[in-house]
Design brief:
16 helices; globular; mainly alpha
Amino acid sequence: MGYLLSFVQFGFIIGTLTFALLTLADRYSPSRIFMICAFLGGICNLSLLIPNITVFNLLTARFGTGFFLAGIYPVGMKIASDYYKGGLGRALGYLVGALVLGTAFPHFINEFSWSSDYTAVIISTTLLAFLGGMSMWFLVPDGPYRRPATKLQLGVVTQLFNIPQFRKAAFGYFGHMWELYAFWGFVPVILKTYANRQGIDLQISFWSFIVIGVGAISCILGGLISLRKGSRKVAYNSLLLSGIFCLASPLFFGLSPHLFLVLLCVWGMVVISDSPQFSTMIAAAAPPELRGTALTITNCIGFAITIISIQLLSFLTHQIDHTLLYLLLSIGPIFGLYALRRS
């Protein structure tokens, strides 16, 4: 599982690095890039159904899916920033809420599939990717506040990190990313560990969908709160709460099933509610003509960090008690909170 997750992340890293260095999202129509990448990513996903697929081809397909996601997630945020001069935190709250539901939805399909065959999940998610790409192309033209870059700028990464507010927001985001995808990837493992220790049956796929999907609500609420309190305050408090959950996680496995599931759902909410606000802070700190590249390069580094945390947890599943694994996720929130401290 660790390798399958990490190859998607690795593909995303190479994709975002390519997109950022070539400033593609700032030089060309982001809606067109979104559509093309949605189709190519869907084809990579569908290739998992090749008969007698080898491990090499399996990992290559996951890498390809990750690579083309680089033209969807950060480019989607770029499109949102082109539409909103004010209230971007709220807009990105809805956008990342959609990302959360998309992340959780395969668990939902798996739980309520008309077939016990895993191909139902792959076919369904591929068709949804195609539909999303076409919807973007036909329904979402380039935004009114888009300012295209006129030339290739290979030194843009250094230029961005020389901006103090950009650097602080980016470092906070990196701390958040250490925890987020490792938590999401291991939600089924957390549920299974609890069920085995308590000797009870849990609907793993259903509760994985709920725990991840409920984060969509907190993204939207965080976006609305940011209009009054500001993005930094929402991001800081979400990261603080998320770090507390990491540190308290060993205690969860001795709780009653109802309390365990409630706390896991709350963790699923606070682990993601800071994400759209970090993206808002990053977009606000970057020059308008480089917003797409700024969002893409921070995504690139952030997802590189997720590989380390995912692989670390995968390795330690064979070394330490599973109830202690998630203490390590607190490293990210601690680092992020330190980066966000006021000077």
